[in-house]
Write a structure and sequence with these properties.
Strand order of the largest sheet: 3-2-1-4-5-7-12
Radius of gyration: 19 Å
Number of helices: 11
Bound molecules: nicotinamide-adenine-dinucleotide, UDP-4-deoxy-4-formamido-beta-L-arabinopyranose
Helix content: 25-40%
Strand content: 15-25%
Structural class: alpha/beta
Order of helices and strands: EHEHEHEHHEEHEEHEEEHEEHEEHH
Largest sheet: 7 strands, parallel
Length: about 350
């Protein structure tokens, strides 16, 4: 329990809003900075409804050093959780500079202002995508961060590099107040808060499996296209490590607590450590919704890999964190959110 103040960039978004809940419930104070480019302020109204506490909300851009300076002047920020970023892989291939500008540029401006104000603790939302296409399906943190296959993934790897270099520079300079950097590499976050009040609310037609399946289940989309059934996996369809968003944000709170004894830069996988295929996900949705999920098998999606899952043992050893929720929790919580809010945060 704590009354420390945390700056949550991107706090109105899917993962950031769930982080706000866990932080407020653990008695942290929360300042959210979000430009609402991919979210709605309604998510924070729901956070208030769930927790009975009000996060401070500043609508602004993480690339705006003046807004950041004002925040660090006004609030005694202990650490930053940096969720703000663009995340659509396909869009990043069409508009690469938008992604480098927003994700890398945003990280750069943020850390410069943080350093100016002597706030040198950051938890960064990285991704398993930074491992590229390694020759293994089980990813450990010792794999090289190399070969991300799209500008989004590269923007995460570049941001990691910036943060690693900052931490290394302080070691070189023997800085008495060195950077403490925690890179959290997420696998596939899904699910929603158990209240059904907040969840993932993608703009337009979803690109990712879970929001697509749940919109088919709720009748907004007609049928799912399964991208390939000829992979060398349990049933030929792609296998991923799905992690409940509440487990994921609990990993961030564990990371926050580990700042006390650490220095430099540490990277952790946040995943469940096991994978499910697309057909297994469809079957789980059918169980929980009592509906058939119409689907068709189509060609593989360019850039997809067959299978991956996390080795999450380092996070267990060093952060005392592991996932607690199973696939049924992930699917039933997704369904509660989707069925209660068929149009997301739009007035239904
Ligand atoms: P999201 O789009 O729901 O949330 C990101 C939030 O950041 C949004 O509210 C958006 O408005 C805000 N934002 C974007 N650019 C900004 C800027 N320049 N200034 C201020 N606010 C800005 O996405 P999410 O799923 O919650 O992801 C959060 C973070 O986790 C992202 O950095 C994402 O890349 C990373 N991540 C997500 C996944 C995933 O599958 N959801 C996986 C790995 C990593
Ligand atoms: C999962 C599986 C698809 C949609 C992406 C990003 C990654 C990370 C998480 C941020 C695959 C299959 C999907 C559909 C399908 N994000 N699928 N039909 O590709 O593992 O990861 O989100 O960092 O960077 O790349 O997730 O949900 O898109 O796909 O058959 O309509 O579902 O082929 O096997 P992915 P996903």
């Amino acid at each position: 329990m704590s009354d420390k103040c945390i700056l949550v960039t991107g706090g109105a978004g899917y993962i950031g809003s769930h982080a706000c809940i866990e932080l407020l419930q653990a008695n942290y104070r929360v300042v959210v900075l979000d430009n609402l480019s991919n979210s709605k302020a309604e998510s924070l109204a729901r956070v208030e409804k769930i927790t009975g506490k009000v996060p401070v909300f500043i609508q602004g851009d993480v690339r705006d050093s003046q807004v950041l300076s004002d925040i660090f002047t006004q609030y005694d920020i202990y650490a930053v959780m940096h969720f703000a970023g663009l995340k659509a892989v396909g869009e990043s291939c069409l508009l690469p500079t938008k992604y480098y500008q927003n994700n890398v540029g945003g990280t750069l401006v943020l850390v410069e202002v943080m350093a100016k104000f002597g706030v040198k603790k950051i938890i960064f939302s990285s991704s398993a995508t930074v491992y590229g296409e390694p020759d293994t399906v089980k990813y450990t943190e010792t794999l090289p961060v190399y070969g991300a296959t799209n500008p989004y993934g590269k923007s995460k790897a570049m941001s990691e590099d910036i943060l690693k270099d900052l931490a290394a520079a302080d070691v070189l300079a023997n800085d008495k107040m060195p950077w403490k950097v925690i890179l959290l590499r997420y696998f596939n976050p899904i699910g929603a808060h158990i209240s059904g009040l907040i969840g993932e609310d993608p703009n337009g037609t979803p690109n990712n499996l879970i929001p697509y399946v749940s919109q088919v289940a709720v009748g907004k989309l007609e049928r799912l296209s399964v991208f390939g059934d000829d992979y060398p996996t349990i049933d030929g369809t792609g296998v991923r490590d799905y992690i409940h968003v509440v487990d994921l944000v609990k990993g961030h709170l564990a990371a926050l607590q580990s700042f006390e004894g650490m220095s430099g830069c540490k990277a952790y996988n946040l995943g469940a450590g096991k994978g499910y295929s697309v057909l297994q996900i469809i079957a789980a949705f059918e169980r929980h919704t009592d509906n058939k999920i119409p689907y068709q098998i189509v060609a593989r999606r360019i850039g997809d890999i067959a299978e991956n899952y996390a080795d999450p043992s380092l996070a267990l050893r060093e952060l005392n964190w592991q996932t607690e929720k199973n696939l049924d929790d992930m699917v039933s919580d997704t369904w509660r959110w989707q069925s209660q809010n068929p149009n997301g945060y739009e007035v239904n």
